Amino acid sequence: MSRSLTDDLKRYVERLNCDLLGIGRVNGSAVVVCGLRISDSVIDDAPSDEYYNLVITSSRMLDEIADRIEKFIVKRGYSARAMPASLEEGFSHRVAAASAGLGFIGRSGLLITEFGPRVRLASVLTDAPLICESSERSIHRDCLECGLCIESCPAGAISEKGFDRAACEFYNNVVLAEGKRYGACGICVKVCPAAHRG
């Protein structure tokens, strides 16, 4: 593992204005995960067109950041693959971020970070010999188990058994669309009290 490459990468990513940065491992590959904090004022009004637009805009920003990280790594002679922020199948930014010590997966299926679940993520997979730093962070690692996400989910996608992605996607892509709303609910993100823990 290369401390100098890891430190160089971290310094580079700091200049890209990420709110979160971590390095973990997924299926034997190093993964660089970056995140942007979502504005409290926008989340507090979710679901809304403004929240949907924020999701789209932050995804584009994160994709650009991930592309820059990929190029940084490739220029140093390693392979890298940016995983788009909006990727929903075959790869989990949340699992990658948890492996990088940025947070933990709560009952809602959301990544709970130092900002609660109010973040958007992108990841870069690489064969570069980066140092995984998951053990260097101290995030409070248990869901508050308050049940607010379960009670508040209009799709019934969150239960004691876990998160039902299909129910969430149906609600976002069909029910909200029928009501002439965009497809990003965000209520589980809004109600999670972990965003207000200090």
Notes on the structure:
The longest helix has 27 residues. The strands form three sheets. The protein has a four-stranded antiparallel beta sheet, sandwiched between helices. The chain is built from seven helices and nine strands. It has 198 residues and is α+β, with helices and mostly antiparallel strands.
Q: Judging from the principal axes of the Cα atoms, what is the shape?
A: globular
The radius of gyration over CA amounts to 17 Å
Q: What percentage of amino acids are in beta strands?
A: 15-25%
Biggest β-sheet description: 4 strands, antiparallel
Within the largest sheet, what's the order of strands? 1-2-7-3
Query: Quick check: average pLDDT?
Result: 89
Query: Approximately how much helix is present in the residues?
Result: 25-40%
Order of helices and strands: HEEHHEHEEEEHEEHH
Our count of domains comes out at: 1
Q: What's the number of helices? A: 7
Total beta-strand segments? 9
Quote the distance from N terminus to C terminus.
Answer: 34 Å
Poorly predicted parts: none
Layout of strands and helices, then pairs:
Elements: H1 3-14, E1 20-26, E2 29-37, H2 40-43, H3 49-75, E3 80-83, H4 93-99, E4 104-105, E5 111-112, E6 114-117, E7 119-126, H5 148-152, E8 158-159, E9 162-163, H6 165-178, H7 187-191
Antiparallel strand pairs: 1-2, 2-7, 3-7, 4-5, 8-9
Keywords:
20% strand; 198 residues; four-stranded antiparallel beta sheet; alpha+beta; two-stranded antiparallel ribbon; 7 helices; 9 strands
